[in-house]
Amino acid sequence: MIAEIARRLAFLPVTLFVVATLVFLALRALPGSTVDMLASSFSTAGLRDQLIAQLGLDQPLWKQYLIYVGDLVRGDLGRSFITGRDVATMVGETLPVTIELAVASLVVMMVVGLGMGLAAAARPGSLLDGALRFVAMTLFALPWFWFGILMIVVFSLWLGWLPAFGRLPSSVTYEPVTNFVLIDAILTGRPELIGPWLAHLTLPALTVGLTTAGMLMRLARAGVIETARLDFVRSARMKGVPPGRVFFRHVLRNAALGILTVIGLQFGAMLGGSVVAEVVFGYPGIGRMMVDAVLTRDYAVAQGAALVLAVLYVLVNLVTDLAYRWADPRLRREPGR
Q1: How many CB atoms lie within 10 A of CB 245?
Q2: Is 323 helix (H, G, I), strand (E, B) or coil?
Q3: Each residue of 11-44: pLDDT tens digit?
């Protein structure tokens, strides 16, 4: 297990190098630059040249790339071209927000997806099974941004049940310690923060969680039905093992291996894919920060956010793979796996 972790982590610098290079080239390929955002149409040519020189954009592309890579090797993500703030500080402020949203979305996906999958697998071919499969297919086909706008219209504008934008009400004062609202509310003795925070978190979490629950439902249903037909399950039933024990100890335990993999991969995708929900709901996470940076051509911020999300995705996949190996003793016994 330790050798597997070391092997996977050894590839992390290579992954980061590839991601850093692709993001660097993609941003420079976009029309316009930071100077176009900072300098108005009334700026003089001298002022524009001065801005270009200050930002280092007057250097050849290969030299800009070498400077960028050199800063990364030293652990320096740079400073925002627009605000002048340290990118690492900005990432530290926004990353907890995205993690909160991803965890909440994962909980929604697991509760809804597994619940529908197990209910459908209990009576395959029934009317309930067909209805749940239709719901799952519909949820999986819905685009996040469209579903998010629909949630805002229904639950915020029409019903007025939930707030549509932001992380906390503007009237609430919040001095972050860890920038995880739940943890900070406990550390600082401010339980009144939890209610408004959950109210603002509900719509984006439902948007991401429900649209991914469809795939989990179909996988859980197929896994449970397929496992229930295997010989060892039939043998357990013939021996008179109670149905509940057969289901939880034999069927669900073996079907959970594939489900565990999908849950881990989906969590990694939520960390990066929540950018759509963050933009739609004005949620101040790292995804929204990256989108704003791309729109303003704030190269350092966009590059730093993309690198951090890439690291998180790789680490989540590593943890998922290790959890799968831990759950399946056959993989632990196989040499070289």
Answers
A1: 10
A2: helix
A3: 778 888 888 888 888 888 877 666 666 665 445 5
**174 residue type, one letter:** Y
Q: Tokens 């086909």 identify what position?
A: 141
Q: What is the 3-state secondary structure (H, E, C) of 69-119?
A: HHHHHCCCCCECCCCCCEHHHHHHHHHHHHHHHHHHHHHHHHHHHHHHHHH
Query: Residue 222's closest CA among 107, 106, 113?
Result: 113
210: Cα within 13 Å, side-chain hemisphere = 19
| pTM (whole model) above 0.85 | no
Partners of 86 in the beta sheet? 79
Residues in the chain: 337
Amino acid, single-letter form, for residue 136 = A
Query: Are the CB atoms for 187 and 194 separated by under 8 Å?
Result: no
Please say whether the beta carbons of 101 and 179 come within 8 A. Answer: no
d(CA 242, CA 77): 58
Position 4 scores a pLDDT of: 64
Query: What mean pLDDT do residues 249-276 have?
Result: 76
